[in-house]
Design brief:
Shape: extended
CATH architecture: Up-down Bundle
Number of strands: 0
Radius of gyration: 26 Å
Order of helices and strands: HHHHHH
Helix content: 55-70%
CATH class: Mainly Alpha
Distance between the termini: 80 Å
Structural class: mainly alpha
CATH superfamily: Cytochrome c/b562
Bound molecules: heme C
Low-confidence stretches: 12-17
CATH topology: Four Helix Bundle (Hemerythrin (Met), subunit A)
Mean pLDDT: 87
């Protein structure tokens, strides 16, 4: 069989020879290294705005899923829906939300102005107690949701929402 030279793919050769190739490459490398150093910086010290956005987002997702459970309890009970919602709340309750409340985020804007009360940052052990209760009740709700007994879920959902209210009463601006 006769050897034939494989030609360059049509686009490649002219592009490599273009005058612009070198500056374009330099720019790409510069942009990439800037992006990398920005990422490194972001990992070391997330901006207050980012931390507030994360916690507001987490609580919004918790609110969404709490509403799904309530809808099931108020209407016709949908076990699958309640399991998904309870597992999501438990995952967020266990995720270490406390790490999003660092000094420097007592005030400021995430998706909107934060509604945290500055007292949260001073009351370490009490806040941890509230957070632990939230986690315990959320895990128990997830366990009961999987078992599928609607009456037990209803009672446990009541316990869970009391942990929301306790924390909000003390650490979230009322009416927000
Ligand atoms: C340990 C304390 C704590 C617990 C427990 C807690 N929250 Fe909150 N929640 C907060 C704080 C603090 C904010 C204000 C966050 C901010 O604006 O920076 C908040 C904000 C919210 C918001 C508004 C988010 C936004 O867009 O600004 C919703 C909705 C919410 N929580 C729902 C719930 C529900 C539902 C539960 C229980 C299933 C719950 N939370 C449990 C402390 C708590």
């Amino acid at each position: 069989m006769k050897h034939t030279e494989i030609p360059h793919p049509p686009m490649m050769k002219p592009m490599l020879k273009k005058k612009l190739a070198a500056p374009a490459l330099a720019f790409t490398v510069l942009a990439a290294s800037m992006a990398t150093s920005m990422l490194t910086w972001a990992q070391q010290a997330p901006k207050p705005e980012q931390l507030i956005k994360w916690r507001q987002s987490a609580y919004q997702v918790i609110g969404w899923n709490s509403g799904r459970i309530k809808a099931s309890l108020d209407g016709s009970y949908n076990k699958e829906e309640v399991v998904k919602a309870a597992n999501t709340i438990a995952a967020l309750a266990n995720s270490g939300l406390g790490s999003l409340f660092v000094p420097g985020t007592e005030t400021g804007k995430g998706w909107r102005d934060t509604t945290v009360k500055p007292a949260l940052f001073a009351d370490g052990s009490k806040v941890r107690e509230y957070a632990a209760a939230f986690s315990t009740e959320a895990n128990e709700l997830a366990r009961l949701a999987a078992a599928g007994d609607a009456a037990a879920v209803r009672a446990q959902y009541g316990k869970l929402t009391r942990t929301c209210k306790a924390c909000h009463d003390d650490y979230r601006v009322s009416g927000s």
